[in-house]
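Quick note —
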Amino acid sequence: MYKDLKPIFYKAVLLSMVLSLLAFTIALAASGDLDTTFDGDGRVTTGFPGSNDSDSAYDIAIQADGKIVVAGSRHDVSTDNSDFAVLRYNPNGTLDTTFSGDGKLTTNFGGNDEAWGVAVQSDGKIVAGGSKCNNAFTICDVALARYNSNGTLDTTFSSDGKVLNNSGGGLNGANSLAMQPDGKIVMAGFRHNGTDIDLAVYRFKTNGILDTTFSGDGVVVGNFGVGNAFGLDLEIQSNGKIVVAGHDDNNFIVARLNSNGTGDTTFSGDGLQITNFGADDRAFGLTVQPDNKIVVVGGKCSPSCSVAIARYTTNGSLDTTFNGTGRRVFSFVPGQQSLGQDVVVMSNGKIVVAGFATGASPDFGIARLLPSGAFDTSFSGDGKLNIDFGEDDSAYGLATQPADGKYVLAGPASVSLFDIGLARVLP
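Predicted structure written out below.
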């Protein structure tokens, strides 16, 4: 009888040890730590066979089932051309082999093709958008692709799943996209006017055709005066208004459009706000808070660069409850150049910024601020974290997982060659 009880006793002891170890591990995990349930160390790198130069990730979206979709580009050194790259990962960081057989796919538009934005439709279809350019980058088109949930091109979208648009002629392109509740696709980018470059916003119907109910021809072009202007990010408010962030040669630009494409005159009087931090300023990322305040992040360079962040009230004025002036400048690492590329706001109002810092080599950077603009020292001890993959790493995309609030960052990461890099951080 005693002999029969020994296995039960040992199993009970073993279970107790496992539970104790798990509790100890959970206790050690803290806000701002890399999430070791994600590929063991919180980091994943992915390359494409035959591509050994500069694979990049630029944007990220989280599906309702927790799978992670990343868009960017695959560079082929043999042709010196790039293709759209779209990858899907399981929540644990492994590639999802139900997507395109191995979790990754490329789409060739016939030139240097880069996907700068990605979104997942309510039906699970994936939309990626960006630009197709010639080798000299003197002629570019807006490029858009839609995929079924298994990774095949959706032939109900422009008959072959791909759209190219050069309605302005010459140099056109898109840097981000967002989905309206009705399935229409809105993209922020640029268009050449024959002299210089203007910020442009494009809207496409669900079948891939430009939506002529938007500004008459499907495109809104903003000429902000002398010099060039680019749209880098956009978001659609719950009331259907479209908020766009970008920059001209020296300033942050924030514009808000009505759903028909006209400027929203309740925003800064003419639908446009220009902000200068006193240097060569660039805005790259945008988010709209639940209270419709607008947060924009980028860089202030004079000539060294720092993260620049601004928050605006719903009427377009700088929000002085944020750092006293509505603006803040900081570095991910003191003394190192830094740029902010993307931003999200948590339900408690805390602001999370992703980008990169350059030291001996660039690293992913992430910082969390309180709603007041102060660093949140409950995150990584001082509110900031650098993530090193080995050599030159830059975070361009940031998303928050709906189920648990974890932060997922995406960008190019280099160990010996440039690959697509992902990192996940505990909130």
